[in-house]
Write a structure and sequence with these properties.
By secondary structure, the protein is an alpha/beta fold. The protein has a domain of 220 residues: Rossmann fold (3-Layer(aba) Sandwich). The chain is built from 13 helices and ten strands. The chain has a ten-stranded mixed beta sheet with strand order 4-3-2-5-6-1-7-8-9-10, sandwiched between helices. Strand 9 and strand 10 form a beta hairpin. Helix 3 packs across helix 4, helix 8 runs parallel beside helix 9 and helix 9 packs parallel to helix 11.
Length: 374
């Protein structure tokens, strides 16, 4: 035993699992971006969220490199999210795919545009985002609303006059005469400069402001890099409810305009596809019609459509839902620029897989009746 003891004590170094291995093999080719520029569509329902699938798309786009001598250096990513804040994506990306979004932001590979906190949360902090104290964050970009100064309640018997606590009256007068930046100047400055490196925020429901902010985020990547940019729009259909003046033509035109930016190669749009949103009521409501038509138009424009939904038979213990993948034979530009993966008999045919999202963030994808990939 003494002779073979050192050999038995030797253990090979344990290497960390690369993030790319967190992508299920059956989904690898469907979350990978095609070589030609194209639009992609991702749909989800209330019972089957698509966060895990979006994270796998980010993982594939950010991890690819040219170590093997290939020409694919990966993509830069701009994520615009109207439903979830940055902390959610940071935690879920690390948990589910091993992505360090903070490091990627510092390296100039990832930019996040917040569409929730500054638009929908009234008590968003004003010191970090450059807004004027006393102005509601949701009111920036529109009429400014000045909050009333807070004062301490008077304690003591009735009729007793208590001195007002605070700075001298002369300082208050000086502060009241000081010029206050208008909402227009705030919106203009923040649409060009990020709050922190790699972090922008939307401060208006107008599509013009969205276009300016996303354009600034895309142009913030290093110009020396040859990487293309993947633009992810997470639930832009929320704008249809927040701003009733947004029309279908304006929204679709904006997506095409952003796709036409010089460095943007792919635009992935994630919208809801629940039955109440697709089955119009009688008579149909304006919001229902706009959402329905937007989803149908995006489906016609997109090269690849990925949709997640719950099981038709109900809830199962070992199945979280169904993922359906449909690839169009040609892109919306009607140009035959398809690579080898698209020039096969499977193009235009839909495929369905079952998936299970586990508690540790991993995902198991398997065909019906296969029982999983192990």
């Amino acid at each position: 035993m003494d002779q073979f003891g050192p050999l038995h004590q030797f253990r090979p170094p344990q290497l960390a699992m690369p993030p790319s291995t967190r992508i299920p093999p059956l989904l690898q080719r469907y979350v990978s971006l095609s070589r030609d520029d194209s639009l992609l569509l991702l749909t989800s329902t209330l019972g089957a969220t698509a966060n895990w699938l979006l994270i796998r798309v980010l993982c594939d786009a950010l991890i690819k490199d040219s170590e093997d001598g290939g020409e694919d250096e990966g993509h830069n990513v701009v994520l615009v999210s109207w439903m979830r804040e940055y902390d959610f994506w940071r935690q879920e990306s690390r948990k589910g795919a091993g992505l360090d979004l903070e490091r990627l932001k510092k390296e100039g590979r990832f930019v996040f545009v917040a569409g929730l906190s500054e638009l929908c949360l009234e008590d968003a902090p004003s010191a970090s985002n450059g807004t004027t104290p006393g102005v509601s964050a949701s009111a920036v970009g529109g009429p400014s609303v000045q909050r009333a100064p807070q004062s301490l309640p008077v304690r003591g018997p009735s009729g007793r006059i208590m001195p007002v606590r605070g700075p001298p009256q002369t300082q208050n007068a000086a502060q009241s005469t000081a010029p206050t930046p208008t909402s227009t100047s705030i919106q203009t400055s923040n649409s060009v400069r990020p709050q922190t490196p790699g972090h922008y925020a939307l401060r208006s429901h107008e599509l013009a402001h969205l276009q300016t902010t996303v354009t600034s985020a895309v142009s913030s990547f290093h110009t020396t890099s040859q990487r293309k940019t993947l633009l992810v729009l997470d639930n832009p259909d929320l704008l249809l409810a927040l701003n009733p003046t947004v029309s279908l033509s304006a929204m679709s035109s904006l997506i095409l305009t952003l796709h036409a930016l010089p460095s943007v190669s792919h635009v992935l749009t994630h919208v809801q596809a629940d039955t109440p949103l697709l089955s119009l009521s009688t008579p149909p409501q304006p919001l229902e019609s706009t959402h329905h038509n937007l989803l149908v138009k995006l489906a016609h424009m997109s090269r690849r459509i990925l949709g997640v939904r719950v099981l038709d038979t109900g809830v199962a213990r070992d199945v979280s839902g169904v993922i359906r993948v449909t690839e169009q034979r040609m892109s919306w530009m009607d140009l035959d620029l398809q690579d080898a993966d698209h020039k096969n008999n499977e193009a235009g045919q839909a495929k369905e897989f079952l998936y299970q999202v586990k508690g540790d963030g991993s995902v198991r994808v398997f065909e019906r009746g296969a029982g999983g990939e192990g």
